[in-house]
Every structure is written in C-alpha cells, then in structure tokens.
User: Fold these one by one.
Assistant:
Number 1:
Amino acid sequence: MRASAPLAAAGSLTILAAPPGAAECAWWRRDAAAKEAERKAALSPLERLAEFAKDVQMSDGPSAVADKTLEEVGKLASEALATGYPNQIGWGFCAGYCTGFAAKKVGKVGFVVVGSMYALLQTAAYHGYVTVDHAKISRKFTQVLDANKDGRVDSKDAQDLYGQAMKVLEFNGPSGGGFGAGVLLGLRSG
C-alpha cells in the first residue's frame, strides 16, 4: 500500500500538468514558441522593455544585442504600420519637415543677402557715393510685413504670417497636424 502512494501522487501531478480533455484543446497542443509569442504579445510596453533588458543581459555580445534591438524595433514598427495612421501622418510630417528645412535654408540665404546689401549700402553712404533714406526704407518694411496693420512689426505679425503660410501649405494636404509638426521640426533643425 505504501508503494502505491508515490504513484498516486505522481498520477495527480500528471492531472495537474494536463487536465482531462487536453488532447482536444488547441491551447495545450501548441508548441512552446507559440505560447511564448502569445505571452510576449500580452505584455505592456514597459514589461516588454524590462524583458528586452533581461534578454540583452543574457545575450552573446554586441552583435547579438544589435540583432535583438533591430528585431524589437522592427516588430514595433510593423505593429504601428498595421494601424494605417503612420501612412497619413508620416507623409504629412515628411513633407512638412522638408518644407520647414528648406524655408529655414532660404531664410538664412535671404538674411545673408539683406545683411550684405545693407553693409554695402552703408559703406557706399559712408564714402559719399549714395544717400540712404532710412525713414523711407522703414516705412516700406512696415507696410510689407505688418500683417495685422497695427503700424508696427512685432511677434503678432510673425504669428499671423506663419498662420497664413500654413493655411496655404496645408491646403488639401494628407495630414495637417503632421505637416505642421514637420514644419516646426524642420525649421528647428535646418
């Protein structure tokens, strides 16, 4: 009787490992890789990051870390692309970034040209070759750049001009929010 007790205990462990009817259940028949993939898919982003850190610590060197990182980034990118939003936002953002970058470059060239012309005119005026009417230049400058017509050029005029430019550039575009963010980042990085 005592010899059958360990066998009975082992039999009860078998029942715990695979419940009755487990052969018919698809979940119990899956392989370990599929179960692990399902478990990882259910993790939150922070849990995935913590698990990734553990995997990196147990890796075989820098090349394994790089491979694992690229694999994880690829999975996240695939998940994001599957939603369809990056296509709309991505194109608008890229177009906006290029527009902002180009605008900043053109603006820099414009500032160099205007600054050089001013320096040249001032040098010519200093030596008596020309007479510069600064009051007339100031009036014309104010007339052209005073968007809100309050008689002075200030930050409110810059905001108005930016709003008018964005209205034109975003017209019939793929994603206005992405385009606007792209323009701001392009202006910042150009």
Number 2:
Amino acid sequence: MQLYILVALTTVVALARSDPVRQSEADDHPIFARAGIVPKKAGLSGFEGVQTQAGFASLAPYIGWYSDYTPNTQDHTGVQGVPMLWGGEGSSCSVTSARLKSFESAVTINAPKLMFGFFEPDCDCPLSSSMTVTAAASIWNSHLAPLATNGSILGSPSLCRQIDEDFLTPFKAQITHDWDITSVHINKLDLAGIKADVEHYRTYGKPLFVSEFACVDDRNGFTPCSDQAQINNFLKQAVPYFESQSDIIAYGPSNGEGLGSTWPFFDSSGHLSSTGKAYLNIINSL
C-alpha cells in the first residue's frame, strides 16, 4: 500500500475539498512540512493491550497508527503508537495519578514524535479526565509544552462535547505553546454530523487528527448504534470522507467503553467483530 505522505496529499486531493478556504489555511500550517506524521491515515483508537488482540494483527497491514490512551504507547508490528497524557493534577479520576507518573517516566527516557493531551477534560470521570480549563492549561505548560523544544508534535486535548465544546478557545489563551494538531472526537449518526463536527474544529486553523469516531445518536443523550447494517453504511461513508480531506491527517474508530455491543471492533476472543471486519474490508480497498 502506498505510503501516506502529507505534503504530496495536499496536491493530490485538492479537488476533493469541501471547504477550500479553511482547508487551505490548515494546509499552509508549518506542520505539513514534517511529512509522514503517521504512515497511513487509517488507524485504530483502542484500549490498553489492544495490540495483543488477534484482530489487531489482521488490521496491522492496513493501519498506520493506534492509540491505547497511555503515555508510552509503543510501535507494534509496524504500526506507530500514538501516546497521550490522559490527565493531570486537577483531575480526580482514579487512573490520573498513575498515568501522570508513567508519562513523566516515559518522556524522561525519550521525547515522543507525537504526543496528545488530554482525554476529554470537558466531561466527567471515569470515562473522561474531567479537568478545568485552568488546570489543563497548567499541566500543558509544565508537562507538554517543554516537549515541543525537543521536536515533539503536540496534539490538542480531545473534547467529548464535539461541536458544542467551549474549552479550546480559553485553553489556547492560557497556554505557553500552542498545539500543532487538533484532536477530534466524533460520535454521530451520519456523514452530515461528521462534517458538522469537522467544520467546527477547522475554525482553529490546524491539521485535524480524528482520534476517535463512532456511530452514535447523540441528539438526546448518547445511544450507540446497534444495527449492523447502519454501522456498515456509516463506515462506508466516513472512511472515504476522511480520506478525501487534505487537512484530516489521520482517523481511527473508537473502541472505548460505552459503545454498546455491536460497534466494538473485537469480540470476546480478541478477534475482529462484524464491525471490525467491515472496517478492515473498507481500508483494505483504499
């Protein structure tokens, strides 16, 4: 499969842009001079230990990156690990302290190529890191901003409120070093919802990294899709759209908690589920 090179892609897919003005602004961002941030757009947002699942080996030849929400995500079977500082001081979540200590140990050894932070600080524990803007900015300035001086690419906090988020603008005003890539979480029913979220995050003028996406009815709460045909159609629309947008440099389906029993990509034995196989079939044909 052809290696995904960001600089070349800006020309190849220029005619496919849905919003030439905003995408052009992101395309001009200096981060695009650093080709190959991830080797392929398609990836996988997983969980701790996802790389040991049998289904991961099936996906590995066709994905360029994966995440497991930890600060020391290792490359595995040719797939680039994308680490994250999940949360920090100011978060009362039970996993925060251990993950912060793990981050401090990991970056002491080696500055990562790419580091994201934080995981949905705008929503509550235990599924999100629950941090105020001020607390998140403080930890960013003390722990993440210094990585940039060593060449690390920084990804913004990911937000659970999607198009309704009001976190990043005040956060940006309080940090000492801006993020390079905007991390996007998308939980929508259809392509129209996906596009609406993307348009919102384009206002920050940065390349977009869709670090999670899933088929979810979020109009009145959070109801994961349960019909396999609907999920398959959702994937068939989402993946080509992500591939066609030059300012979207990566995308990966979510496999976190709260997504029901049909969407998750792995069955109880660790092999690909029907949804995982549907995703594999789509990215295999790219």
